[in-house]
């Protein structure tokens, strides 16, 4: 693959970034789009570098930065870590699709266990009505859980689709997270989390998929979501405050059970 000219994209994007100063407001708002950074969004191209560049630009901007993943497009993203701390608040608006590469071979040794990894970020929100699709079919086919597993890739190393680690003030609302290779959403050592109005789904044969895994985190609020995943929801060494929540519907394959966590608060 030819070397891509990244810097011109970055400069063009920053020059083109729309800075709005709301009347009476002190805080600037900046609007960025993945496309400003050279992303193609055809579901085939490798848009990873554009995503990384866009993240870096958003992270370096103070105030509130909206980073848009445009609707009607599919951005194929290889495993990435999007790290903080950032100067301001980032609102990642996922209106289109973010898709994973389909082949497990696309994960190198250093990438094991991660796909979209947010690390050390505060004041981050994901919303926008779009889809994050792990396209985990080949991972599920290669998985097995029994003691004599001879799979070339034991299920433990399959990636977490959205992993938030050492984050605070995270909000994930109104998006679909589907077909994760393993866990759809993971919060590790996170504080003040809201995961509302999510659709988290993978098919019946997606053995081992997990809806949400919460590890060593506090103030995690998970409400009004629809889970329909291969295996289960898990909380390990986590503390969920305000949980269970009202109208929280969980369906796990294969028994098509409808679980409602704890008491209802209608
Ligand atoms: C896609 O781009 C990322 C970032 O530049 C790179 O790490 C990865 O190896 C690329 N994948 C392929 C298959 O070229
Ligand atoms: C695993 O292999 C051992 C030894 O061959 C056998 O006794 C055992 O039943 C196997 N376990 C499963 C789950 O197949």
Task: Please describe the topology of this protein.
Elements: H1 6-16, E1 18-21, E2 28-33, E3 42-46, H2 48-59, E4 64-69, E5 74-76, E6 80-83, E7 89-94, E8 97-99, E9 114-119, E10 122-127, E11 131-133, H3 137-141, E12 160-165, E13 168-173, E14 176-178, E15 183-188, E16 191-196, E17 199-201, E18 210-215, E19 218-223, E20 226-229, E21 232-236, E22 249-252, E23 257-260
Bound molecules: 2-acetamido-2-deoxy-beta-D-glucopyranose (NAG) (2 copies).
What is the share of helical residues?
A: 10-25%
Report the CATH superfamily of the largest domain. Single-stranded right-handed beta-helix, Pectin lyase-like
CATH class of the largest domain: Mainly Beta
Largest sheet: 9 strands, mixed
Low-confidence stretches: 1-5, 235-266
CATH topology name of the largest domain, in short, is Pectate Lyase C-like
What's the alpha carbon Rg, rounded to whole Å?
19 Å
What's the number of domains? 2
Number of strands: 23
DSSP strand content: 35-45%
CATH architectural type of the largest domain? 3 Solenoid
Structural shape: globular
GO molecular function, one term: polygalacturonase activity
Protein name: Polygalacturonase
Organism: Aegilops tauschii subsp. strangulata (Goatgrass)
Pfam families: Glyco_hydro_28
């Amino acid at each position: 693959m030819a070397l891509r000219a990244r810097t011109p994209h970055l400069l063009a994007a920053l020059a083109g970034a729309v800075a709005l100063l709301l009347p009476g407001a002190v805080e600037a708002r900046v609007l960025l789009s993945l496309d400003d950074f050279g992303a193609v969004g055809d579901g085939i191209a490798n848009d990873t570098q554009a995503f990384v560049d866009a993240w870096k630009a958003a992270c370096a901007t103070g105030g509130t930065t909206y980073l848009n993943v445009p609707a009607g497009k599919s951005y194929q993203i290889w495993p990435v870590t999007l790290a903080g701390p950032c100067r301001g608040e980032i609102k990642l608006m996922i209106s289109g699709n973010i898709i994973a590469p389909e082949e497990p071979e696309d994960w190198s040794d250093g990438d094991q266990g991660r796909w979209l990894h947010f690390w050390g970020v505060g004041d981050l929100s994901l919303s926008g009505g779009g889809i994050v699709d792990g396209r985990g079919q080949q991972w599920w086919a290669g998985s097995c859980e029994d003691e004599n597993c001879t799979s070339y890739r034991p299920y433990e190393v399959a990636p977490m689709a959205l992993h938030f680690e050492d984050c605070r003030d995270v909000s994930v609302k109104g998006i679909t997270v589907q077909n994760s290779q393993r866990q759809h959403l993971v919060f590790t050592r996170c504080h003040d989390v809201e995961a509302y109005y999510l659709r988290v789904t993978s098919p019946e044969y997606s053995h081992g998929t997990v809806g949400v895994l919460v590890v060593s985190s506090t103030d995690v609020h998970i409400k009004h979501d629809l889970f329909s995943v291969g295996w289960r929801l898990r909380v390990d060494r986590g503390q969920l405050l305000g949980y269970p929540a009202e109208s929280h519907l969980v369906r796990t394959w294969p028994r098509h059970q409808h679980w409602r966590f704890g008491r209802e608060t209608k």
